[in-house]
Amino acid sequence: MALGMLGIHVIVGAFAGYLIETVFRLLKRQIRRRSDICRLKRCRIFYGPAGIFFRVEKYILLCNESVFCSGKVMSMIHSLTNGLNRFCTWVMRLAYVNVLWILFSLAGLVVFGLMPATAAMFSVAREWAKGNTDVPVFSVFIRTFKKEWGAAQLLGLILVTAGLFLFADIRIAAQMNQPVLVNVFMSIGLIFVFVLLYVFPVFSHFDVKLRQVLSISFLIAFSRPLVTLMMAAGAVGMLFLVLFHVTFLLFFSGSALSLLLTKLSFTAFMSIDQRQEKEKAA
Question: Where, by residue number, does the polypeptide cross the bilayer (predicted)?
Answer without folding.
Answer: 6-27, 94-115, 149-168, 180-200, 212-232, 239-261
